[in-house]
Design goal:
This protein has a domain of 52 residues. The mean pLDDT is 87. By secondary structure, it is mostly helical. The protein has a two-stranded antiparallel ribbon. It has four helices and two strands. Helix 1 crosses helix 2.
């Protein structure tokens, strides 16, 4: 069965009223189906069925509800709880722990010899 009503990418993009780059992005993501035409292996010639374009349009249809007013932040007189962290002290503790673990491993290795 020969389909003569297939659209080129430019025609399909124009039908959707979107830019060619946007259209190519939808095709690359698999949102829009295409038909490979010809025997090209490096660059496939793609054609698009108008029914697939209509299906894509239907899937893109959205309905938004009434907007909800954003809540304002509560203002409190209390300052937020802040924890002060001494990163240098944490780093030094970790170094001491690593050094102790290394020394323990060396002692165990010496005993097993």
């Amino acid at each position: 069965m020969l389909e003569t009503n297939l659209l080129t990418a430019d025609e399909a993009a124009k039908l959707l009223r979107i830019g060619r780059r946007t259209f190519d992005g939808h095709v690359a993501r698999g949102d829009i189906a295409y038909i490979a035409v010809g025997l090209g292996e490096k660059r496939i010639r793609k054609r698009f069925d108008p029914d697939d374009i209509v299906r894509f349009q239907e899937r893109q249809r959205r309905v938004e509800g009434p907007s909800q007013a954003t809540r304002s932040r509560r203002r409190t007189k209390e300052a937020p709880a802040v924890e002060i962290v001494d990163f240098k002290a944490l780093l030094e503790e970790r170094r001491i722990e690593r050094r102790a673990a290394r020394e323990t491993a060396q002692r165990v290795a010496r005993r097993s010899r």
